[in-house]
Specification:
This is OLC1v1029210C1. It comes from Oldenlandia corymbosa var. corymbosa. The protein is mainly α and about 500 residues long. The chain folds into 2 domains: about 10-290, no CATH class; about 305-475, no CATH class. It is about 55% helix and about 5% strand. It has 22 helices and 5 strands. Helix 6 (about 105-115) packs parallel to helix 11 (about 205-225).
Length: about 500
Amino acid sequence: MDHQPESCEPMLRESIKHFLAAYRSGSSDFSAFQSIFFRLIQTMPDPPLEMIWFYSAVTFHGAKATPDRDIPPNRTLVMAKDLFQQLISCNDSRNGLKRVALLAPVVFLLYEVVKDSSDNELCLRWEAEDLLHKMVSYVQMSCRDEFQSGNESDVPVACFEDLVRVWTIDRVEESCVVEENLKVFFPVWSGRTWDWFDGRYGIGRLAGIVLCEMFLLRLCLKIRLGDVRDELQKDLQNCAIQTIKTFQNSYFLDMLLKMLLQPTLPITNILSSEDGVSLMRVLYDVLLLVDCSFLNSGRWIQLLDNQSRNLALTWSLVADTAVQLARNSGDHNRALSYANSFCKSQLSRQLIKWLSSEVGVEEKCGSPIGNPGDIIRWISILEGKGLRGFDKSISKLLPKEAALKLGNAIFDEEMVDPSHGTDPATMINIEKSIDGSRKRKEGMGGAGEPRIKLVKYNLHDNVRYTKTFSSGVEIGSSVFDDDMEVTVGG
């Protein structure tokens, strides 16, 4: 627990057990817990997140006038403000991720305020937005000089599921399973989101969730407070860009991208389905069209670890989803803009560079990438041949039938060794052995695995054509014309 003596964890577990039993027996006096943990926190130079959470939870439950969960929204907002100040005063850590993760209970209460407030309580929503703005400013100050990206920052949170139960005890039944309990405490996250966690509850991932919840709530409040629809979209875009640039955290970006892989945003309780669709399109535009500088900055693209590769693949999946949705809705200009923006991004080029290195193909600067579906299908085929380098939670999102039919090109002739002497208009096979690469790279298949075949074909014609290998793999040309002029309206 934040490098504190191991003796703290057994004490915390026992205290949680006694608190839950006392609450369920009808007790509302938790002053003994408050007194003990307040003294403990005061004696620690950097008290663990778990200790602060438990202390603030018992203080919160003790301050309620009634054990009933039905607290008016205005009262909940007051308690959220008090809780924010308490959490800040209890924590003097230099760890920015910990400071952010501590705010999870405040976001939990704010969500309740937004969900339960009526359209006539505009002043209450303005107060909630003001508190969110203060929290975003606090995050900015906490992480100003800190860029956390590696897994080494993701310190495990002890007693995590039990601590969540302490916070939600007045909202769930005793028999409530862990997954349902987590959905209550983190209401904007679905069960599928928790599957991605795979039981790993670390401070870094927790901070990513908190940042995403703050981000979503801020945008939802903008929508519910907005009057002029024409100005609202621009306001949402500006707010989204500002918030993303403020956070600039890899855990946050990973959570945000995974959220956009779901059919709908997990905000059905606070936004209409129409507003949810509009917000999703705003997020696609922000990430793919309006301002991608934060994704192309050096500190993102220089990261070559497993987390950055997963981030790049997830972003490719989101870009492909955005292209398909725009195309299906008939907005072909926007689909082309998404694809072109993806082609120009440094993050996608970094992914291509890593993949080319893994399979032993030369990748030259300036080579066309194709649309995001190209990379996704290519990775899917390579993984089927033994490539390893992505988390299973991401790999399982890749298309399963990609090896049967490819839609677009991956490499052009400049990415192939000229010594092959291949005619640019002719489809060729480049065979690379994973066995040979295994000696140089980690995560590749062993000596007995099949060799990878990379395919290459001409992209110069915009006329659709099809050629078939003896293996039966069918390949078609790209559907995008790079010479087309693209304009995207609001």
